[in-house]
Amino acid sequence: MSVATTESQPANSKGRVLFASLMGTTIEFFDFYIFATAAALVFPHLFFPAGNEHAALLASLATFAAAFFARPIGSVIFGHFGDRIGRKATLVASLLTMGISTVAIGVLPTYASAGLLAPALLTLCRIGQGLGLGGEWSGAVLMATENAPEGKRAWYGMFPQLGAPIGFILSGSVFLILGNVLTEEQFFAWGWRVPFLFSALLVLMGLWMRLKLTETPAFQKVLNSKKEAKVPFKQVITEHPKTLVLGIVAGICTFVVFYLTTVFAMAWGTTKLGYSRNEFIIMELIATLFFALFIPLSAVMAEKFGRKNSSIFICVLAALFGLTFNPLLGSGNMLGVLLFLCFGMAIMGLTYGPIGTVLSEIFPTSVRYTGSALTFNFAGIFGASFAPFIATSLATDYGLGAVGLYLSAASIISLIAFVLLRETKSVDVNNQI
Q1: Fewest CB atoms less than 10 Å from the CB: which of 37, 39, 309, 375?
Q2: Is residue 255 part of a domain?
Q3: Which letter, b or e, does each residue of 268-285 get, where b requires 16 or more Cβ atoms within 10 Å of its Cβ?
Q4: Which domain holds residue 342?
Q5: NCBIfam families, per this entry (predicted)?
Q6: pTM score, two decimals?
Q7: Is the dihedral of CA 122, 170, 253, 54 positive or negative?
Q8: Which of 61-75, 249-263, 337-351 is predicted with the least confidence, judged by mean pLDDT?
């Protein structure tokens, strides 16, 4: 029997769809961000040989990058089942994959007790996180947009995107609390493990919500017409190559903005700029509020002015933001750094809010899970995987201004892709099987 629902089953309620999509991505991004934070603050000291702080940081950031190479593989695996048997079952499987990988990190041995086995196991768990998120994000977006009424797809598609800032705030808050209640010795001895173990509770909550969902109406039409793609990955590659490439390039700006404003800025700020871990976490938490506030604004813009025009305008803003790295992040005072983080996170909210809707609407329903997941996660490889690593090297050799130019160049490249993509605002994409 198919795991998909039948037409006789009740439709998902608006509240259940939006809350489940938001809850799931919040959990997934909480898991992803606690690793990102630990990669900048903890792992260089515990999972790699001592002696060269800069080399240990770069090695930790390289481990962080491993997930981005696993995400397209997760896209193919989970996308295949999402386009073959349904969105609901695949979302449950992706959440379990992410959750188990995250909890496992909380019990790993460190370099002091296991030697090179420690970074190897850390990398393996990080790859598991990448596989899970590779299937999670697109499924959550489709659960929202394929249940949305016409004229509100960008608004519905914004809700799973809100999981990113909420997950970031939760992860940063946990590290901040631990930093305040534990001594430095306690934090590095066992405190850093708490966020990873705590993820188990969140995963159970997410599973409970997702098991209550029914299949989306759009994919149910595919099942009823028996037009499921036999090999969705092959169909995307052979029938939609231009759309795939343009979608990947369009998503690059989103990733570069975020990971330079978070992982790179935190690593640079707590080492070269001399801020304490707690000081920088507090500044990033304040800035993340702008991330959350500007996501709904981006959805309003996408519904009013179209996905294409809004995204082009936002890419221009991101390119201009690149010029602020040296005068703000390198200002030498906390206010300048805080302004830098707030500007960056506001732009991140604008670019991230509509990207899920954009990348899902450019593919037909029968291969939408795979197509949107591939574009988003390959964009992650090009835009995020080595962004902190590249930025650290550029800043070390040429200064912060070079990092800003790197961001500006990425923004212009994405802008060109948005110019070439078709506008989907007024297209009934859920009837395109």
Answers
A1: 309
A2: yes
A3: bbbeebebebeebbbbbb
A4: 14-216+229-425
A5: 2A0106
A6: 0.84
A7: negative
A8: 61-75
209 vs 416, which has greater pLDDT?
416
| CA distances (Å), origin 61, targets 57, 109, 211, 265, 359 | 6, 19, 35, 13, 27
CATH code for the domain of 390? 1.20.1250.20
Q: Does residue 432 sit within a domain?
A: no
Tokens at 144, concatenated: 């929202």
Q: Can you tell me the distance from the alpha carbon of 95 to that of 73, in angstroms, rounded to the nearest whole number? A: 15
Domain assignment present for residue 5? The answer is: no
- Are 348 and 365 in contact, with CB atoms under 8 Å apart? no
**Encoding tokens for residue 95?**
């959440």
In the numeric block, which tokens belong to residue 129?
Answer: 């996180």
- Do the Cβ atoms of 395 and 403 come closer than 8 Å? yes
Which residues have CB under 8 Å from 371's CB, separation 6+?
A: 79, 232, 236, 240, 243, 244, 247, 359, 362, 363
Q: How many domains does the chain have?
A: 1
Using alpha carbons, select from 175, 166, 96, 173 the residue that is nearest to residue 136: 96
Name the least confident of 41-55, 93-107, 183-197, 242-256: 41-55
Cα(first)–Cα(last) distance of the chain, in Å? 22
The one-letter amino acid at 15 = G
| DSSP conformation class of 3 | S
